[in-house]
Design goal:
Strand content of chain A: 15-25%
Distance between the termini of chain B: 60 Å
Strand order of the largest sheet of chain B: 3-5-1-12-9-10-11
CATH topology of the largest domain in chain A: Uridine Diphospho-n-acetylenolpyruvylglucosamine Reductase, domain 3
CATH topology of the largest domain in chain B: Aldehyde Oxidoreductase, domain 4
Mean pLDDT of chain B: 97
Oligomer: heterodimer
CATH architecture of the largest domain in chain A: 2-Layer Sandwich
Helix content of chain B: 25-40%
Number of domains of chain B: 3
Number of strands of chain B: 29
Largest interface: A-B, 22 and 26 residues
Radius of gyration of chain A: 19 Å
Shape of chain A: globular
Strand content of chain B: 15-25%
Chain lengths: 295, 760
């Protein structure tokens, strides 16, 4: 087996190399999906273009409301990012359940999104944060909302010569909290059978507002649960409201039966986790220190 | 407490630690030879059918390819432990998906793999059978239509897909069940689990002069590999030399041939050394996983909780070959009866072929499966009678001098102590400390496998001692344990011992690293060698001191005459210059365990040798909505007879518990029409470090009469109890009694839903 290994020093070079080689080349960052898929299928690309030496792709930037994650930011970086402690805790919670320690040390957030697994754990919370991804290719730079970037299982809007450079998002303006939960058979190296992320805010009169809920692994791609979000808007949290949240979330799931879990169990868990994520975020509101509306 | 021992009972670092932690140890997958080629297998894509043709022409034309090897290139010869139903490459027909049909030999493993895909095999597909319930039906398709032509040991009673029908009978079960206050019948079903060794099976074979086969492999049993390879290639055992490399774990999965026979067949045809390493997918589809069992268990009890009778019907799914499943079908009956005093027994088991992966001898074969059934049912019965499960066990367990179900007299029985200590450590009095939280307990006995052991103990002129054994070190540190026995008996320091092991040409025979026997049997052979060395030392010293041999005393590592001392190394130096060195051949064979042969029919395993006793207890919480299980505390109390090296005993306990937790909660090779649906470590869920709970080990020492310094077998027992212990705790925590393994979150939630719907 011959494998050409390319290590461009600039973004431009990476794009040029990819364009020249067409589909025969693949970008590689952490390699935790690419290498496993190649070994499993027995089909290796003719060339891999290593993105690790391109400057500036590995930083988390921003403060306050606006943040950007370089596409080469590792899950370990996100897991340990102090700026995400508190209101944006769900980012850390999502990152810290991906793979195991060794995987998180090298696997990147850009890779997690470009691989477009329906069970990608970073996707639900980034959907809640209305993240946008920046792509740089031979046709120039463009920005695409994450929700439309991922089109289906292993399918994205990225052209083969486009490098994802960053993932940008804005946190809600008012006081908010977030949470992430996933179901699986073990506590590491586990592909989610259902993943649920939520961001909630509370109005001055103690009602839920700007609720954002996203679910992964329960359909061909992670989705925002807009029906549930609409239902929760303006409601005070109660047992009945939570039960309805679970019912609506379960109804919104379109899971498959596979060796990991049955569709009916995934749907059941979708309901449980939706309820718990909303409740957990609500309970966290009082703990987080981002109360700008009071200022 | 003052120990009478210098070396025994102390946690010395293992003798092979340095090589392993520094990365210098040469494992089977590391091993390489000059001019070596690589082999890859061609597997059957169908579960049952005839082979019409094998076309190797396209593969032979591929880059780097030297040879394609098929059944035609080697003698037609079937082999196997109890029934000779295995063949190296499928010849006339295939019996499972993944069965090797041919092998490609090429310059690199990648080239061999690419060419393996180009070997074209034409099949005529036939009806297959995937469950034991279907396979025992009169009109079931035969997995081996030619079964009558196969040779088998005389003990087994075969018929069609059934490779043995065995029984264990005592008293009058029908009468006892009629007289019982209550009778309970349940079905328990266990899972197919892989031994999960870190290093895949690997071997390199080379033929010198076309007639001398030399194999290097990570086998647990070099002498069995030697014998089987000789049988396959129709040569004498002495024409085969097997060297054991460092082994990355075995757990019974490397007892039988792994890839040695493919390497040998390929090397024979290629005329060059050939290396085979199993891929992860091959491990999951065509290695030797644990047999899944279906156990229908009936128990009759008195009102005050005395067991009057047990009846069982057991189906052992051995997959496409019988392998050690015939043994499992026997030993599971010893597990199902015990460790309780039961006056009436009628246990019947059948080992059965199906068109699935051949199974093997995973750590404590039959142990976890049988224990899951018997110990789950103990709790169900206790709850139904309103008796505490611990108390129910204490009313029925065997005690010193009792007879086991096979009629053997039990000695050194420590079961009550194990149960009480486990209950105490887990806080049994507070069995349900909060909603969703519960505790479980289970107990068992286990055998210490017999078989003969030989060692050469050689003393150098510098006092260094070589322990030369045919037994392999499979990672347990059991040979360090044997060396501790040797050091203790010979009166030397452990650091003076070097181990030479696992070479069929230069090391004496050993029955091998299996069945919890290594430290036990090799240790005893060392003690025998020391007796012989002491005699030699006395003779040499007597000459030196002009005394009689019987006047010489052995004191520590020296010979003593009056106040004169002759140290071991000086004796060895004298021996080296005068009589070819100081060396002894120590041997051991366990005395037969006497039992009542009237009770057993067609059983290939009938006794529990030097039985060990143990109890496990767990404290866990169950999330009733998600089915998630969180283990807070896990306690093991194990009677090891004598703890030779407590650290490595704890290592065996902790590793076994984690392996058992995998079998209990997450691991299963999932089949659909004979196809493995999770043939990789992404979806075959072994516990990770994050899943391993806090495990507390308590060692009980109730010495055996046979083992070195009283030791009993240690390695297998810890994997036996976790499924039952955890199942009992889950039932205690959330009233979900799951009777099939693994107990997944999904099954817990489903069971709870069924329970609540029944209650409506």
């Amino acid at each position: 087996m011959k494998l050409e290994f390319l290590a461009p020093q600039t973004l431009q070079d990476a794009v040029t190399m990819a364009k020249a080689r067409g589909d025969a080349a693949r970008f590689i960052a952490g390699g935790t999906d690419l290498v496993i898929q190649a070994r499993k299928s027995g089909t290796w690309p003719e060339a891999v273009i290593n993105l690790q030496q391109i400057p500036d792709l590995g930083e988390i930037k921003g403060s306050g409301q606006n943040f950007s994650l370089g596409s080469l930011v590792t899950h370990r970086q996100i897991e340990r990012e102090g700026r995400f402690a508190g209101a944006l805790e769900a980012l850390r919670e999502s990152a810290c359940v991906i793979g195991g320690h060794q995987v998180r040390n090298v696997a990147t957030v850009g890779g997690n999104l470009c691989n477009a697994s329906p069970a990608a754990d970073m996707v639900p919370i980034l959907l809640c944060l209305n993240a946008e991804v920046a792509l740089a290719g031979s046709e120039g730079r463009r920005v695409v909302p994450l929700a439309s970037f991922i089109e289906g299982p292993r399918k994205t809007k990225r052209a083969h010569d486009e490098v994802m450079t960053e993932i940008a998002f804005s946190a809600p303006a008012q006081k908010f909290a977030s949470a992430f939960l996933k179901g699986g058979r073990r506590r590491a190296m586990e592909i989610s059978i259902v993943a649920m992320a939520g961001v909630v805010s509370v109005s001055r009169d103690g009602k839920l507002t700007d609720v954002r809920l996203a679910m992964g692994a329960a359909g061909p791609k992670a989705i925002r649960l807009t029906e549930v979000e609409k239902f929760l808007e303006g409601k005070a949290l109660s047992k009945d409201v939570l039960e309805e949240t679970g019912r609506l979330a379960a109804a919104a799931a379109s899971p498959i039966d596979d060796v990991r879990a049955s569709a009916s169990f995934r749907r059941h868990l979708a309901g449980v986790y939706a309820r718990r994520v909303v409740e957990l975020s609500w309970n966290r509101i009082s703990e987080v220190g981002n109360d700008r509306s009071a200022a | 407490m003052n120990s009478p021992f210098r070396i025994i009972g102390k946690s010395f670092p293992r003798l092979d630690a340095r090589g392993k932690v520094s990365g210098k140890a040469i494992y089977g997958t590391d091993f390489a030879m000059q001019g070596m080629l690589h082999g890859k297998l061609v597997h059957s894509p169908i579960a049952s059918g005839e082979i019409i043709s094998v076309d190797t022409s396209r593969a032979m034309a591929m880059p780097g390819v030297y040879e394609v090897v098929t059944a035609k290139d080697i003698p037609a010869q079937r082999y196997g432990s109890f029934v000779k139903d295995m063949e190296v490459f499928a010849s006339g027909r295939v019996n499972f998906i993944g069965q090797p049909v041919a092998a490609v030999v090429a310059r690199t493993a990648e080239e061999a793999e690419a060419a393996a895909k180009a070997v074209k095999v034409e099949y005529r597909e036939q009806a297959a059978v995937f469950t034991t319930e279907d396979a025992v039906k009169a009109d079931a398709p035969l997995v081996h239509p030619d079964w009558q032509e196969y040779k088998a040991v005389p003990t087994v009673k075969r018929q069609g897909n059934i490779t043995n029908q065995a029984r264990l009978v005592l008293g009058d079960v029908d009468k006892a069940l009629k007289e019982s206050y209550r009778v309970f019948t349940h079905r328990f079903v266990t899972n197919v689990v892989h031994p999960g060794y870190t290093e895949p099976r690997a071997a390199i074979a080379h033929w010198a002069d076309g007639s001398q086969l030399h194999v290097w492999s990570n086998t647990q049993l070099p002498f069995e590999a030697q014998a089987t390879l000789a049988e396959i290639f129709k040569i004498t055992p002495s024409q085969v030399r097997v060297n054991v490399t460092v082994i990355g774990g075995g757990f019974g999965g490397k007892l039988r041939l792994g890839v040695e026979h493919y390497a040998a067949a390929a090397a024979l045809k290629a005329g060059r050394p050939v290396k085979f390493v199993s891929s992860c997918e091959e491990e999951m589809t065509s290695a030797l996983p644990r047999q899944p069992l279906t156990i229908d268990l009936t128990t009759g009890v008195t009102k005050d909780g005395k067991i009057l009778a047990k009846a069982a019907s057991i189906l052992v799914d051995t997959g496409a070959t019988s392998g050690s499943g015939v043994g499992v079908a026997s030993s599971v009956m010893l597990m199902l009866a015990g460790p309780y005093k039961i006056p009436n027994l009628r246990l019947e088991s059948r080992s059965v072929y199906t068109n699935k992966t051949p199974t093997g001898s995973f750590r404590a074969p039959a142990g976890p499966q049988g224990n899951f059934a018997v110990e789950s049912q103990m709790d169900i019965i206790a709850d139904a009678l309103g008796i505490d499960p611990l108390e129910f066990r204490l009313r029925n367990i065997v005690r010193e001098g009792d007879l086991a179900p096979n009629g053997q007299k039990l000695e050194s029985v420590s079961l009550e102590e194990c149960l009480l200590k486990a209950a105490d450590a887990i806080g049994w009095k507070d069995r349900r400390p909060e909603p969703g939280r519960g505790k479980g307990i289970a107990c068992a006995w286990w055998t210490t496998t017999s078989g003969s052991s030989g060692v050469y103990v050689k003393v150098g002129p510098d006092g260094q001692v070589f322990l030369n054994t045919g037994c392999a070190e499979i990672g347990t540190a059991a040979l360090t344990g044997a060396a501790q026995v040797l050091a203790e008996a010979l009166g030397i320091e452990l650091g003076s011992i070097q181990i030479v092991s696992g070479d069929t040409a230069s090391t004496p025979f050993d029955f091998g690293a299996q069945g919890s026997r290594t430290a036990f049997a090799v240790g005893n052979a060392c003690i025998d060698a020391v007796g012989k060395l002491h005699q030699r030392m006395k003779e040499i010293a007597a000459k030196q001191f002009s005394a009689k041999a019987e006047e010489i005393e052995i004191d520590g590592g020296a010979a003593k005459f009056g106040d004169k001392l002759l140290p071991l190394k000086e004796i060895a130096a004298i021996a080296q210059t005068s009589q070819g060195g100081l060396i002894a051949h120590g041997t051991f064979i366990a005395p037969p365990t006497l039992h009542d042969k009237e009770r057993t029919e067609n059983m290939v395993i009938t006794a529990i040798n030097s039985p060990s006793f143990h109890a496990h207890a767990v404290d866990l919480s169950v999330d009733a909505e998600t089915g998630e299980v969180k283990i807070h505390d896990y306690v093991v109390v194990q009677d090891v007879g004598r703890a030779i090296n407590p650290t490595y005993i704890e290592g065996q306990i902790e590793g076994g518990v984690v392996q058992g937790i995998g079998q209990a909660l997450s691991e299963e090779i999932v089949y659909e029409n004979g196809i493995v649906r999770n043939a990789g470590l992404t979806d075959y869920k072994m516990p990770t470090a994050m899943d391993a709970p806090n495990i507390r080990s308590f060692i009980v020492e109730s010495p055996s009469k046979v083992g070195p310094y009283g030791a009993k077998g240690v390695g297998e027992p810890p994997v036996i109890h976790p499924p039952a212990t955890i199942a009992n705790a889950i039932a205690s925590a959330v009233s979900a009694r799951v009777q099939t393994l693994p107990i997944t979150a999904e099954k817990i939630v489903r069971t709870l839903t069924e329970v609540s719907e029944t209650a409506k």
